[in-house]
From TrEMBL:
Record has Membrane as a keyword: yes
Domain N-acetyltransferase, chain residue ranges per copy: 70-221
Family as reported in the entry's similarity comment: Belongs to the acetyltransferase family. NAA40 subfamily.
Organism name: Arabidopsis lyrata subsp. lyrata
Protein name (database record): N-alpha-acetyltransferase 40
PANTHER family: N-ALPHA-ACETYLTRANSFERASE 40 (PTHR20531)
One GO CC term, this protein: cytoplasm
Reactions this protein catalyses: N-terminal L-seryl-[histone H4] + acetyl-CoA = N-terminal N(alpha)-acetyl-L-seryl-[histone H4] + CoA + H(+); N-terminal L-seryl-[histone H2A] + acetyl-CoA = N-terminal N(alpha)-acetyl-L-seryl-[histone H2A] + CoA + H(+)
Amino acid sequence: MDLKKRRKILEKKKTIHDLIKRASSIDDPLSPFDSFRRYRRNDLSLYLESGRGDRLSSSVKQYIQKLLKTNMEGFYGSDWPIQAKLKRKEMSSADAHYIFVRELRFGKAYEISTRRASMEQCNQIAGFVHYRFTLEEEIPVLYVYEIQLESRVQGKGLGEFLMQLIELIASKNRMSAIVLTVLTSNALAMTFYTSILGYRISSISPSKANLLTFSAKYEILCKTFDAEAKFVLENDEEPTKD
């Protein structure tokens, strides 16, 4: 490899690294999207707020663990104790970004400035999204680790709303794709992402990566935003060179 080409590769890697670092350092990725902080549809009155893994209170950590157990233990079966331990470690990472969904306590609370709304003005959390800005196959991506909702707010368009917001956050921070993992046993989630939201099984997913010796219980899904990401993560046509 000649020096010029090597320098170009190193410069590209540095640019991507800086992009990830800059996106990860943002305290409130929701700030450019104030209109998405409130969800008032289908008899729901909700408020969204940002959080960071290394700033979670003990009560919020306990809530996350409880909701994960409620929603996911049945899908993992005997693997749940190991997965629960892994998820406890993941949730407190400094790289972990959260969107918390809170139910508004009183009718006109949604009119309060989003920057002044406090924990006291909202009651219990009704769900959360855990996501990170990271690299996948050298592509800058927003990786959705978890989207978990209480049963009382499911089936009311909230999941689709949150994933639309995730796409906006990814685009705003110049990520090239959104990536997430879905258990093969979770048929509803698979249908939601592939049929409703248009996600595709990634070429790096176990079922497509020729991992013949590994009986995977999950698929890696993706939605790409540029030609290079599409080529790498969906194994489509090679991107056009400038």
